[in-house]
């Protein structure tokens, strides 16, 4: 069992009725519920002091999950520095969907992390391309999501250490949807699904991937700041 902090900017769900209908308590609450059977979970949001990511919180966090979209620029550089340092020191980081443009992800990747996108409610099929990988544990050959926002290549990230999922979209595009990286002692997983107005994080197979990703990203030695 790992100690997980689920971070969400928590703006769409408070300002947009469609997002609030899908995630009435926020995306972070749905993800936290999905992880709670396997892990000890807390949440943090942008508008809390220090975005809910104080030194103490991060020191106790084995794995940080990150969802952001419209307010990446409002994340303070001091907090980004702090998260960056913890990742290099062994904290796992699971970056979700539009978090590809988060300051922390771009810093860790060293690239712009740009991609193609289209919000048209298309079907997505996530193919497991590395079936032996622990993040694909318990998942079949593929996961089908009925309505999604399309993300397409080229995805401007470094070559992943391991690629677990490749998405196909009804419009014809493909995308590297499950990318593993290591930076310093930290494990990083980018997972594409999860737009704010589609119930992606309510899908059992997506929740299974999230639980697996947290277990995979956890430091080998729990809480490297202890002892
Ligand atoms: Zn989106």
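^ Assign residues to that structure.
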């Amino acid at each position: 069992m790992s100690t997980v902090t689920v971070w969400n900017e928590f703006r769409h769900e408070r300002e947009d009725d469609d997002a609030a209908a899908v995630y009435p308590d926020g995306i972070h609450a749905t993800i936290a519920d999905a992880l709670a059977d396997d892990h000890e979970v807390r949440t943090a949001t942008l508008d809390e002091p220090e975005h809910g990511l104080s030194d103490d919180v991060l020191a106790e966090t084995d794995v940080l999950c990150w969802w952001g979209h419209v307010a990446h620029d409002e994340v303070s550089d001091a907090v980004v520095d702090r998260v960056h340092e913890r990742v290099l020191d062994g904290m796992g980081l699971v970056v979700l969907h539009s978090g590809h443009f988060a300051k922390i992800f771009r810093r860790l990747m060293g690239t712009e992390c740009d991609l193609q996108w289209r919000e048209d409610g298309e079907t997505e099929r996530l193919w497991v391309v590395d079936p032996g990988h622990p993040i694909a544990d318990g998942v079949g050959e593929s996961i089908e999501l009925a309505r999604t926002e399309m993300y397409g290549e080229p995805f401007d990230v470094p070559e992943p250490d391991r690629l677990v999922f490749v998405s196909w979209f009804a419009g014809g595009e493909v995308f590297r949807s499950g990318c593993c990286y290591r930076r310093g002692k930290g494990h990083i997983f980018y997972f594409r699904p999860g737009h704010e107005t589609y119930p992606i994080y309510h899908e059992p197979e997506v929740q299974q991937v999230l639980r697996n990703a947290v277990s995979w990203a956890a430091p080998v030695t729990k809480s490297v700041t202890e002892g």
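The mean pLDDT is 96.
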